[in-house]
Amino acid sequence: MKYQSTRGGMAPLPFCDILLEGLAPDGGLTLPVALPALTPEMLESWRTLDYAELAARVLALFIDDIAPDTLQRLTRAAYAPDVFPRIAPVKPLAPGLSLLGLSEGPTLAFKDMAMQFLGQVFETVLAQRGQTLNILGATSGDTGSAAEYALRGKQGIAVFMLSPQGRMSAFQRAQMYSLQDANIHNIAIRGVFDECQDIVKALSGDLTFKSTYRLGAVNSINWARIAAQVVYYVWGWLRATKNAGDLVSFAVPSGNFGNILAGHIARQMGLPVRRLVLATNENNVLEEFFRTGVYRPRPASQTFATSSPSMDISRASNFERFLFDLVGRDPVRVKALMQELQQKGSFDLSALKPQFEDRYGFVAGSSTHADRLHTIRSVHQETGVLIDPHTADAVKVAREHLESGVPMLVLETALPAKFADTIVQAVGVDPEVPAPLRDLAQRPQRVTLMDCDARLVADYLRQHAL
Predict the structure, then answer these.
(1) Dihedral of alpha carbons 47, 52, 54, 57, sign
(2) In sequence order, what DSSP letters do the residues of 8-54 get, joined into one string?
(3) Is the pLDDT of residue 141 over 80?
(4) What is the pLDDT of residue 408?
(5) CB–CB of 417/108 below 8 Å?
(6) pLDDT band at 221 (very low <50, low <70, confident <90, very high)
(7) Cα–Cα separations (whole angstroms), residue 171 to 384, 440, 449
(8) What's the burial of 77, exposed, middle or buried (CB within 10 Å: 0-12/13-18/19+)?
(9) What pLDDT was estimated at residue 274?
């Protein structure tokens, strides 16, 4: 299995090489040269596997430069019962509508599902190669804590995580900033998430700096994250169906387009997916694209602070991977579109709009704060289940796209405890906090505050990199 860049400027490389690189050298994102297939026979043979076994089988389709027994050892460690006491349960919400519970891991968010595997595979590959890696990332809320909990104390790895000052929930901040491990560095940037991501891209795009300080990535620009997320689409499909050809739709809260991209990849591989229902909050750049065909990211000044803060994103880093498929896997055209985006601030693919749903299964909708409160309240009243505000965005849009005979699985974003203020506003009760995190607010916090300037982050890296 070899990987190429969406912009065509990289010789094909094996998995372990792209694992350690993050962005491709030409600024593009890596993708398999050819996607592996999920056949009906393969899917049927996997129905009795537990999650760790299924992960090993699915990931082996993308990874052929790690021995199968090593890969199985890594998935066993990543998805062990002491890490995930329960793993991806399906919780019915209404006829034809269920929740795929992805927030049972150590940071109570879906990103643990992929990040725990990354923590295992990074340490293993670096040890084999005798190398070190400095992870540079940006978070709008959950990526940071999931990465830091997965990589804390890992040999040969340091983490430098940028977050937008004041733009995350108090619980999210405490999860990250309370970590005292020497290899974890939290940097709060005076700006919004997109500006944090711009700094990451600027430093990762400086090939001399990247090479000198061995920069890597753990957010969804790293293909390993996407591959590990494909697993739970397969897991969910297996639990929602009885027969090989049965169709399932997935509703996904979307900010950076990584989570729903994994569903797109699974569908392209042959998983019987009817629709991929993309849900945004008031920052609806992605919803606007699927409605109009025009991709028009917004500046930081027009990025709203909302009650589903992990989706307060106006430039989706993973969108380029879908764009690559949409334009016929033509890297020349992708590169031209990204240049047009940089110069004009938008591009128009409305001529391709019929393909969005007919060929790729995408439909989209958006949600407001009032919608979130109503959805959280109605789900709680009807089922007794509390959902977080991001998941509420997806439930609201999923309800608009239900089809008879096609199960709809909503991908849970996080446990409600991470967004207590909104839950109290919706239902009048504080959400339960899991016992290991009940003293989180009282723990000492460690964070470095910086102006929004890539040079300041670069200087900090020079001083603290491995």
Answers:
(1) negative
(2) S-S--B-HHHHHTT-S-TTS--EEESSPPP--HHHHHHTTT--HHHH
(3) no
(4) 98
(5) yes
(6) confident
(7) 23, 8, 18
(8) middle
(9) 98
Question: Does residue 284 register a pLDDT over 90?
Answer: yes
pLDDT value of residue 275: 98
**Structural domains in the chain, sorted by start:** 90-104+235-427 (3.40.50.1100)
Residue 22 has pLDDT above 90, yes or no: no
The angle subtended at Cα 168 by Cα 164 and Cα 174, nearest 5°, is 105
111 annotated active-site? yes
Burial class for 301, CB neighbours closer than 10 Å (0-12, 13-18, 19+): exposed
Q: Is residue 216 helix, strand or coil? A: strand
pTM over 0.90: yes
Q: For 346-361, what is the mean pLDDT?
A: 98
The per-residue pLDDT for range 54-99, each reduced to its tens digit, is 999 999 999 999 999 999 999 999 999 999 999 999 999 999 999 9
Parallel, antiparallel or unpaired: strands 97-100 and 90-94? antiparallel
Rounded Cα distance between 395 and 376, Å, is 9
d(CA 323, CA 337) in angstroms, rounded, equals 9
According to the 3-state scheme, what is the secondary structure of 101-118? CCCCCCCCECCHHHHHHH
Amino acid residing at 387 = I
Taking only the tens place, the pLDDT of each residue in 143-182 is 899 999 999 999 999 999 999 999 999 999 999 999 999 9
Q: What's the CA gap between 258 and 321, in Å, rounded? A: 9
Question: Using CA atoms, how far apart are residues 437 and 379, in angstroms rounded to an integer?
Answer: 25
Measured between alpha carbons, how far is 453 from 190 in angstroms, rounded to an integer? 9
pLDDT at 217 (0 to 100): 87
Average pLDDT value for residue range 10-37: 94
The span from the CA of 107 to the CA of 150, in Å, is: 9
What DSSP string runs through 117-184?
HHHHHHHHHHHHHT--EEEEEE-SSHHHHHHHHHHTT-TTEEEEEEEETT-S-HHHHHHHHT---TTE
In the set 111, 154, 210, 418, the catalytic residue is 111
Show the CA angle centred on residue 33, arms to residues 31 and 38, nearest 5°.
85
Phi then psi dihedrals of residue 349, to 5 deg:
-120, 35
